[in-house]
Specification:
three-stranded antiparallel β-sheet, 11 helices, 35% helix, Helix-turn-helix transcriptional regulator, Multidrug-efflux Transporter Regulator, Chain: A, Domain 2, globular, alpha/beta, D-Maltodextrin-Binding Protein, domain 2, DNA-bd_dom_put_sf, nine-stranded mixed β-sheet, PBP_domain
Length: 307
Amino acid sequence: MSKELSYTIEEVAQLLKVSKLTIYDLVKKGELPVFRVGRQMRMDAKDLDKYIKNHKTTTSQVPIAELHRPQTKNSPNLVISGQDIVLDILGKYIEKYSTYKTLRSYTGSLNSLISMYNGECDIVSLHLFDGDTGEYNLPYIKKILVGHSYLLLNLLSRKAGFYVQKGNPLNIQTWTDLNQEHVKMINREKGSGARILLDEQLRMNHLQPKNIRGYEQEETSHLSVASSVSTGGADVGVGIEKAAKIVGIDFIPLITERYDLIILKTPENEKLISTVKEILSSHPFQSEINSLGDYDYSQTGSIIYET
């Protein structure tokens, strides 16, 4: 048998610089073929090369900085920024019910909001906790989108908390438990919603990041953090419940976060806003969210704030 080079899902995610959830979604859709060795999925290098060649002109699945959208008034391209799989579902519905071609950027909440201010994306998903008000998203939006009119819509609510190893052997329950010498954490990248939640909680609990073991070690997705805890690379990480269930570790819920969408209110975006509002309020879209589990869609589509 000839030896063919193959990759694990994690290696493919690292090569394409996207989250493993993105790769799993592409596999599920049949866009990336895989084979199994025991319980592990692998991908032939030639199949990955073929996928890359076939998508060189579409510019999808790349970071914001690499998205070269035509900057024309009637451009059909639409950039949706954020990491949750629900955003991929939203993109599918937008393409079905409009003429837009949706492009995905898997960038953290704060960095995405700044990109919107710079005109680099059209729909941004946010889960930014403000410790002073106890509120999500709006305090950050008001400071960053100065001079802009915008619409803030609820996408869903979800639990955020700690990823811990099976059985939680170190009995990690609260934010102050991170401040123990024998506890090693894995962090998220700067600008992500999970990183901001952690930093705000450390500030509120008068804890110094320099005293948190592993604080400087970063991963770029919920799934990567959960995987690090699963393999013993860390004892604890911060993220959402969904990734813990995918990886098969325990989850300690600490807060219910509001996951919102923001769109700038411009004449060019009138049709987009109307389309997104209809999709979020539709039964098929909400049913698809419900089928994923671990999401609260009771407020999906509701207007949180607008200027």
